[in-house]
Amino acid sequence: MEQAGFARQLTDDLWLIDTQFQGERQIIASYLIVGDGELALVDVGAAATLGALLAGVCAAGFDPEDITHLLLTHVHLDHAGAAGALVRKLPHARVYVHRIGAPHLIDPSRLMRSATRIYGDKMERLWGTMEPVPEDRIEVVDDGNEIQIGARTLQVLYTPGHAIHHVALYDEIRRVAFPGDVAGVSIEGIDFVRPPTPPPDLSLEDWDESITRLEALGLERLYLPHFGEIDATARHFGVLRRRLHEWGEIALAGLHAEKDDVAIAADFARAADPVIAEHAQNGAAAADAVRHYELATNYLMSAQGYMRYYQKRHPELLR
Ligand SMILES: [Zn+2]
Fold first, then answer.
1. Can you give the pLDDT at residue 2?
2. From ligand 1's centre to the CA of 276, what distance in Å?
3. pLDDT tens readout for residues 246-280
4. Which alpha helices (H) appear in 81-198, and where do they start and end?
5. How far is Cα 40 from Cα 93, in angstroms, rounded to an integer?
6. Given its phi and psi angles, is residue 73 left (phi above 0), alpha (psi -120 to 50 degrees) or beta?
């Protein structure tokens, strides 16, 4: 809790908090919305970065004790990991989560187990321990619900594809959204969109539909968890959709060649890293950019996501 917090004001009622995942900037963001008696966080980052998150709230000039809403786009560890510890510390905080995600907050053991399969003994250092959220602190949400935070009305949009329990939060008046991971990973200052495609829920069909739905809103700005503000939203979604399918082709070719997850991950890296590096401003920045994208969403996890998707949903394509 002695950690220095990082917060940047975006609008009159909105702050970006950098949760400083792994001590790095621009990997995992939380957004603080200031209402009139409400104080909301959109996504809360990993359990391991709870201190940095709360220090960020303080740096923005607010008392964490006053937090009332924890709005989760989905329950993956980098978005919801700190939720259980937060409700234990914060007397007024309630957790808003899609109904399919809620059971995993009440009992995070399955989430922790599947993450441990990916991260092994690095689990604790990377993510910390996800504490359960007591059921009576959870507000289950579904498509079409509205959440009022001060002057903002946030519509819940069910947007599966990245995760079956994923929602985006849409502010119709300001024409902006907190789209979660279904809008991909694009780190501020680097013109590259990477699709985060983890197992077990990845569905290209669902994801396409979710992108179409978000595109149709004509959004002026996205607030990405990984990482920051995007203004050219039409172009962003176009690139995301194209790359999502390009990587699908790479994964499918790998499966036909009987490659394993490590080899398919290497194919993704070969396709993407030179392009990421090209978009960074200079040599040192290029190495950082490649590393930051990998921290935000890693290739191995993406390979495993596609492999499971094709094996489970499209065995006919593997013949
Ligand atoms: Zn996710």
1. 55
2. 21
3. 999 999 999 999 999 999 999 999 999 998 888 87
4. 83-89, 102-106, 109-119, 123-127
5. 9
6. alpha
The residues near 289 (Cβ < 8 Å, ≥ 6 apart) are 187, 190, 192, 276, 277, 279, 280
For residue 63, the CA-to-ligand 1 centroid distance in Å is: 28
Residue 281 predicted with pLDDT over 80: no
User: What pLDDT sits at residue 120?
Assistant: 86
- How much distance in Å is there from the Cα of 283 to the middle of ligand 1? 29
Distance (angstroms) between ligand 1 centre and the Cα of 301 equals: 11
Q: What is the mean pLDDT of the chain?
A: 95
For residue 48, the cross-strand partners are: none
Q: Distance from the CA of 302 to the center of ligand 1, in angstroms?
A: 11
Reading the block at residue 175, the tokens are: 């024409």
Whether residue 216 is predicted with pLDDT greater than 50 in this model: the reply is yes
Alpha-helix residue ranges (DSSP H) falling in 169-260: 204-215, 233-256
Ligand 1 centroid from CA 166, angstroms: 8
Q: Which pTM does this prediction carry?
A: 0.96
Q: What is the pLDDT of residue 1?
A: 44
What residues have a C-beta under 5 A from ligand 1, the ion? 76, 181
Say how far apart CA 290 and CA 279 lie, in whole Å. Answer: 10
